[in-house]
């Protein structure tokens, strides 16, 4: 019986090794997905037109903005649909270094995210992008670690989505940072 027990232990040890458990500790799935998305992402510059799932997109300009509840980044955006089909406007979000989730946007923005864009039309406006973790209560404001970027992705995708990242210049993101009061 002890020979059978030893054989079972050997099989279990072999099986554990075959599963890859000896390659190190398990990793958080969100971290792995974020790394895979970053590796697959394309990059564009402010003022550069790029294609995203049939749309010609451009982040025309970036500037600081805000109100009594906190700061945001104003992104002037243009989307063009030169196809013969209705297309959906994409997700647009601000990410700071180390953040797995974007900060969202202000509801009174003039760029209508998530709307359908009819054939042979364009949409343009300003999207007020909130810094990730910003409580929008007036205080305290959240810092945005650099490098920061705007991520543009389809609202619906199957498999790995197409993603375009637009770096936000450090001097621009510095203008939406909390002040120290010195």
Task: Describe the protein's architecture and organization.
With 182 residues, this protein is α+β, with helices and mostly antiparallel strands. The protein has one domain: Immunoglobulin-like, CATH 2.60.40.4170. It contains three helices and ten strands, in the order ααββββββββββα. It has helices at 2-18, 29-40, 170-174, and strands spanning 42-43, 49-52, 55-67, 70-81, 87-88, 91-95, 116-117, 121-130, 148-153, 164-168. It has a four-stranded mixed β-sheet with strand order 1-10-9-6. A four-stranded antiparallel β-sheet has the order 2-3-4-8, with no helix packed on it. The chain has a two-stranded antiparallel ribbon with strand order 5-7. The longest helix has 17 residues, at 2-18. The model is unreliable at 14-18 (pLDDT under 50).
Give me some keywords for this one.
single chain, about 180 residues, alpha+beta, Immunoglobulin-like, four-stranded mixed sheet, four-stranded antiparallel sheet, 3 helices, 10 strands
Largest sheet: 4 strands, mixed
As a whole number of angstroms, the C-alpha radius of gyration is 23 Å
How much of the polypeptide forms β-strand, as a percent range?
25-35%
Number of domains: 1
Point out poorly predicted stretches: 14-18
Write down the secondary-structure element order: HHEEEEEEEEEEH
Helical residue percent band: 10-25%
* CATH level 1 class label: Mainly Beta
The secondary-structure class comes to alpha+beta
CATH topology: Immunoglobulin-like
Task: Based on Cα principal axes, name the global outline.
Answer: globular
The CATH architecture term is Sandwich
Whole-number mean pLDDT: 83
Strand tally is 10
Q: What kind of assembly state do the chains in view correspond to?
A: single chain
Query: Count of helices?
Result: 3
The spatial strand order of the largest sheet comes to: 1-10-9-6
Please report the distance between the alpha carbons of the first and last residues: 77 Å
